[in-house]
What does this fold into?
Amino acid sequence: MKFEKLVVVLPCRSLEGYSLDREVEHAEELLSAWSALYHPALLADAGTFPRWVSADEPPKDPTASLIVLPPSSQQVVASDWLAQATNSGACVIGGLQRRDEMVEAALERLDGGSGSVDPQLAGDFLALGFCHLQMEVLIRDAGYDMGTDVQYYDEQYYDYMGQFDRELLERETIAAAVAAVKGEEQAARDHLGKAFTQLTDARRGLPYTYSADENPHLVDLTLIAPTTLGQPLRDELARNIPTNLLISGQVLEQLARQEPATLAALKEALSKNTVVIVGGEFDERALPLLTPEGILGQFRRGLDAYERHLDERPAIFGRRRFGLSPALPQILRKLGFAGAIHFTLDEGRFPTSRKSKIWWVGIDGTEVEAVAQLPVDAARATNFLNFASKVSNTSYQEHNATAVLAHWPGQTCPWYRDLQRMAAYSPVLGEFRTITEYLERSQSISEWIRSGPDDYRSPYLRQDVNRGQPDPISRWVRYHGCRAAVDALGSLCAMADLAGGGETHGPWSEDLLREVEDAEESGAAESARHAELENRLRRRAEEATARFAGVVPRKEAVTEDGYLIVNPWSFSRRVLVDASELRRTPVVEGPVRAAGESAGQKQVVVEVPAMGFAWVGPGAAESAVPEGPKRRNRWRKKAPEETPMAEENVLRNEHFEVTIDPTTGAIQAIDDYYVSRGARLAQQLAFRWPRPKRPRQDGFEGEDPEKDYSIMAADKISVTSSGPVVGQIVCRGRLVSRDGERLARFVETIEARRGSPILEIKIDLDVEREPDADPWNSYYAVRFAWGDAAADVYRGVCLANRPTERPQLESPHFVDIRSGERRVTILTGGLPYHRRFGLRKLDTLLVVRGETARSFRLGIGVNLTHPVPAALDFLAPDHVHQEKAPPPAGGSGWLFHVDAKNVIATHWSPLRSGDRITGFRVRLLETEGRTCRANLRSFRPVKSARKTDFQGEQPTELSAQGDKITMDLKAHEWAQVEAQFPA
It folds into this structure.
């Protein structure tokens, strides 16, 4: 059949109605119906452009017409019109949704069908049809409807219409169609190019929409997973369209093993500069819950995988899973990243911007240029209904229009491919660019995003529970415990190497780093693996401690049993040592802060200097009752020195006094002896039932009624140690509902040490009622309450102490509660999830659904001025080595010392030339948000020192005089320092 007219029936009266948001199936059928009629065989046969009509007013004379009637229009058109149109000789194609089905149905009714038209060339014509539709909608949005006679009387639109020659567009399109039918492909492409150019000129001349200075930017983001490594990915790479491949180091390694052909295609695309790698990490772990060294280790492991398999590393950071943090910008900058994408395609919340391009500002002030526009799903037809209008709208807030389109390989809708086809002819709707090219060339106005940690909210806990992740809470406790152990091991090895001056043994800890990071993903099913890993860490630490002890000088001809306690951290520690094998209890002097004997056990509290050691030997005579603290604040009461550390329902040392409720077994009050007495903190255990949400007050849910919680009932409270060094009380009891149902049994051990401002709490639960599936509303928890509603709450963010006002907190190291100069710090010991209620209550979650751990450990620090070192100290293992000879002078010594208490060292390692150690490397982190000048002293003179990035590049010389290095650190700066010893 020969057609004289090509008509598509749309379920709207104007293109404004067409472009409204619709269901996915409606969007697909409307786009298909319009563009299907642009097949070259149909255009050449009719010799005219398709036109659209409203379903409310279908063609009255449809003779010799090919009419496409999508299902959504068929519901609107008059019931008798379809029969009339068929009887008049029209060919009506209805009930179809996909474009290929519509094209096939139309060609079946056309004399000669598609003829010899190349399918790829025919696809270019369909892309032209989609492009023409977008321009129709765009012009209608701008104030002129090309499909009707309606005009808005604006002089600029008259000027515009004079520039746009619609007849020329139609003439070039028909000429291209005729050439295509004749098999003259090059001529057809030439005419198509002129048609696309005409549409491009029309877009550039349209006022109030796109910028005329540069074409719109189209940023393709192809997501790669282990299931998309084969032919679909190779097809994407073969298109030679600038794209950005979001792939982790782990998936890249899998690609190299399983798909060498795809790897070769990827390398070829990289050599042509048509592909940019986006990524950086080895695996997309929960970055906000890792330590700084854990994050850096993930990046280094990932970058090593990129360089091994691709001979280059990504310049753009990005990840699909949530994991953004304001701690990242300085890490990215110091690893050499040129930019980032400031969005993720997972659950979770992060700050957004109206700008497509931003400066992402970290907590230390470091800026990284980033793409911030949220991507559209390239597989959803609704995103392409009025694509051109949406892109043009972005130019209202910035100089250039931009669209980011994300998809999996081979999973896109036809109109996304149409964008790629038309871009090969002319940038009519945009020009595809890689992210690096976009950041370099875009003239978009950038915005500075200085959001705090509270603006980033992760979905980790809920996701873990929903997908059945084993141990969603305790796996983080194990991770941070093992991470502290492996960090200490690395520093121990560095201390032994540097003090001994011989060959470095740094790789002692390197083989365990990967296992510690990988163990974070496992749970109860691999508890044996965790136990074996912890045992190996312990054995390696004992070996490293013994090796360091071997290089410490000894008194000549002196044999004396004792203990060498080694501290591999950059802050001093007070370590409790079981000295039962000594003949006599040590004397309280030098590094020994407290000593005593109870129940046949000799106990010593030893102060060990940072990056140093302390010696404990037997005393000359039996030690007396430990002395009370020698320095006291004049505003504090003096605790009686001869009072037992623990007695009925009371536990105390020189820093605090704890009162235990005899009925519940809960901590009723912690007092710090200030004249203005008042409970600093109260604590209890509880199970929480899920309840409907209540109205929010002051940014939080209203004060949580006690009926949402179980009741804590004590069965037995006993004093297990009354001093003189350790006081300990054990509470045994039940958690019961208000109806008397027993939910769990508990054993809570509360311990205070002489000279320590930290109260340690150990909890053992025997759970009988499983929590419900909502982990933030049904759980077992430690509940804390404080008296001052005006107190400020701080939390750890990648070891940075930051204020917080969020109801749901993530902080695996500490939560700091400040009321003027008085502070209480909850040392969470790796427990990451906390929930605030009102202004004075906090739940630290212990057990949610899927959690198998039943033993937990927390600390409460009273008036800690620096919570970060205390939190790390609480996690850190002790390193005690039994010796036969004391050091030659004094009871302690150190290798390195940092005088700024708000600065900690996260890493130490020796520098060497061949087998000779020439200096050391240290990474220093400012934790309190205060600019400071820090002095680093070394046990050996330093010839020179410099501050570098994390690649050892961009050096800045530092002042080095004698054994002292002086440096300035910004608030929350994480700096790498390299120092050289004299020859």
About this structure: The mean pLDDT is 88. The first helix runs from residue 15 to 18.
